Amino acid sequence: MTSPLRAVILDLGNVLVFHDNGLLFRKLGARAGLSPTETESRLLATSWTPANRGLLGAEGLRREICRSLGVDLPMDEFNALWNCHFTVHEAVLPRVEGLVGRVKLVLLSNTNVLHAAYLRPLLPVLERFDSLVLSCEVGHVKPEPAIYKEALARAGCAPEEAAFFDDVNEYVQAANALGMRGHLFTTAQSFDAQLKALGL
Asked: Which residues are in coiled coils (predicted)?
């Protein structure tokens, strides 16, 4: 017998907001005089994961990325470039709003302090979530089991009582391995159908 669904755990990027990393690499690269490919390579090799683990605060993140790209940008300019690639996924927000009060609603995201600070005001619905599990605040990143267990603890439910949605299949599979009901997020329309299949 299937356990009752008590929690929905949602990813942030490419679920609640779109993030065009290609645009980010192009804009940062243009400012540093580097190709998008070289910009991506340098960022992924140095600061990406430490930033997501919360090892770099806002100023530390600015310094580390500027160092890796060989450019020195003031914080205002850097922050604007660092967040240039986000667009709110308007179509999915009403469905998420409809979950408020029906299940525990938890955000589970690999992110850094500057992205988190930028996106919170753009997503008022986050204030209605029961908890926000941000990698930069808890020190763990997907697909590590510890960050999923943190989300479950905050939801106050067993793995089989939680549905998890993410656009990265590796992260969905990690949730399934813990006994959660993992679903690959693709579109707002598919999300709606997935929720209906779950009785929501």
From this structure: none
| Helix ranges, 74-199 (H) | 75-82, 93-97, 113-119, 135-138, 145-155, 169-177, 188-197
Q: Name the residue type at position 20.
A: D
- Bridge partners of 136, per DSSP, are none
165, 16, 166: which is closest to 93 by C-alpha? Answer: 16
Report if pTM > 0.85: yes
CB 171 within 8 Å of CB 135: no
Which of 118, 59, 51, 52 lies closest to 84 in space, CA to CA? 118
Alpha helices by DSSP H, listed for the chain, are 21-32, 36-46, 48-52, 58-69, 75-82, 93-97, 113-119, 135-138, 145-155, 169-177, 188-197
Contact 126, 132 (CB under 8 A): yes
Task: Yes or no: say if 111 and 39 are a contact pair by the CB < 8 Å rule.
Answer: no
Contact 136, 52 (CB under 8 A): yes
Phi-psi region of 72 (alpha: psi -120 to 50; beta: other; left: phi over 0): beta
Tokens 């300019």 locate to: 77
Contacts of 192 (CB under 8 A, 6+ apart): 95
Residue closest to 132 by CA, chosen among 116, 118, 144? 116
For residue range 112-149, list pLDDT tens digits in order. Answer: 999 999 999 999 999 999 999 999 999 999 999 999 99
Residue type, 46: T
| Best CA proximity match to 11, nearest among 135, 138, 145 | 135
